[in-house]
Every structure is written in C-alpha cells, then in structure tokens.
Amino acid sequence: MRFVIFGLTVSSAWGNGHATLWRGLIGALDAMGHTVTFYERDVPYYAAHRDLAALPGRAELRLYSDWALVAGDAARASDQADVAMVTSYCFDGRAACELVLGSRAPARVFYDLDTPVTLARLDLGEDVPYLPREGLSGFDLVLSFTGGRALERLRAQLGAGRVAPLFGSVDPDAYRAGPREPAWAGDCSYLGTWSADRQHALDRLLFEPARRRPARRFVLGGSKYPDDLAWPANLTRLEHVPPGAHPRFYASSPLTLNVTRAPMAALGFCPSGRLFEAAACGVPVLSDAWPGLDDFFTPGEEILIAHTADDALAAMDLGPIALARIGARARARVYGQHSARHRALELITLIERGGGP
Asked: Which string of DSSP letters, residue by residue, matches 123-189?
C-alpha cells in the first residue's frame, strides 16, 4: 500500500509524543513492504530541535514551509495513494482534510492522536483548527489513540462513521534494555512534557514523594515546564531527553512513573507511548489509574498503580528483585502485543476491511 500522511511532526520529538510513535509505525510499514510519504510543516520550533533527517527505507519525509507551495504536489500524491491520512494537530489540518476528502485515494483516514483533548476543546466551544468545520463524516475511517467512550463521542459529536482505536506502540529495535547513565541515576524517574492538566497528578505522585524522602533521588526529563515551578531539592531536571537516549534514561532508575493528562484519564483506555517504551526497556512502570489500564497490563504483575503519594513510596520500597520481575513481565507483554509491528498490522487490517466494523 502507498500511504500519504499529513501530520504534526516526525522529524522532532521535542515537546510532543507524535514523532516517536510515527517513527515506529513508519519503520514497521516499510519493513512490511508498504511505502509512506509524510508531509510536515517546517516550523522553527521543531526545526531548532530536529533529531531525525530521513525516514527509514523507502519512506519519504517532505518538509514544506507554506501549504500553498506544496498543495499541488500533495494533491497528486494523495490521488496516487491507497491511503491518504490526516492527523490531529497537523499545522495545516483543515486544508489537508479538504485535500484528502477530495482526493481519489480509496481509503481516506483521520487519525486523532489527541482524542480527549479534541473532545474537551469541543466541549468548551473552541474552534479545533485541525478538524474540518463539517466534522469527520466524510472520512472512510476515523482512528483514535484513545478507546472506550471516546469512540462513541467521535460518532455523536463529530459525525464519524467508521471508528476504531489505534493505540500507542513501541519500536522494540529502538527501545530495549540498555546501559545506565550515572548522571541520570535516581530512585524514580519521569519522562514527559509539561502540561497543566497533568501537573496535579505529577505533584501527587512525584513531587510529594520527593519532598517526603529527601535522601532519595528523583529525575525528570521534559520540556516546557514553567520557570516558576517549585522543584523539590532532590529532583534533577533534564530539559530534554532525545529519543535515542530514552533507553538509557529509563535504565538509570529502578522505577519510572507514567502520568496521564486529565482529559485522557477521565475517558480512559489511553496508554501513552512512554508507558510502552519504558516497559520495552524492562523498566517497571508506576502509573496513575484510569479505566481500561488493565486491558494493556495486569496491575500488580506487569504494572504498578498509584493513587496517592503513599502508593508511590510503597512501590519504590518493593526492592530490586520484585521490581525487576514486574519489568520483565511488562517487557514480554509489550513484545507480544504492543510493538509497532502489531499496530501496523492492525492498521492494515482496518484499511483492508473497508466498510466493515
């Protein structure tokens, strides 16, 4: 199949979770014999932090400075494609949707990698610039990074016809057990971009445990945190950890934390890419709770759940043997069900099914 994708970014993982997911999916699709062309607006923010220059194999990255300059080429590519897709937060999402919906591509797809955020903005009456003004009814398939009730809301609020989840995943070749980085060593780590609707849970599950255990060391990697944030004295902050260093970051602590944005946690069925990436490295994950989490990992065996700071501290106190066992089980689960190849196969099956459920 020939895929043409209009997305946020695949060239820079700075401050977003889209890039690493697409790198894994595109690599898996390429290995399966499919071709992918990814259109990305070349914006200064991502250009200044670009950590990928070319896609694997036959896949092609087309960076453009202005939609008007690339629209003709994009229209021809979409007409020749088997699958033309637009994703959430695409800088030129509305124009790309119009182009895709008017194309001759047999499968016209919208992939919302931020469904709960999209729905929350609609609930507030905000314009969502990456959505067509008439909703999603024109697409042959609407994919969602989030399952559960979110799928029905996409139908009810945006008129989506055929809807299916396509959850996060991980490339096992890029994420595997690796060496520790002594400068990043800690008792518990967290990797994630700052978000206002995630900060309350981060305060409860990372900052408060750090304040209560001043002799322990905590490590946070991520960008966009406010300058006036009150950081615990024993928490080391890294402004950005590039994807190639993620395995070393995870390996440098015996436990890593996963915290979900509030709109996503409320809807549930929302596994982040970071959750799969850490597990693929064999590092046990401590996660906040949300509906559907046990569909992806078995609590207490493959993942640890925390509601309070006491829960987080109890997880840290389990000891290296118990934690290593949980990490090993999680890694086996990821390799067996949540790799980029598994998701690529799911995507191909959904497209080949055509008008089916």
From this structure: HTT---TTS-TT-STT-SEEEES--THHHHHHHHHH--SSEEE----B-TTTS------GGG--SEE
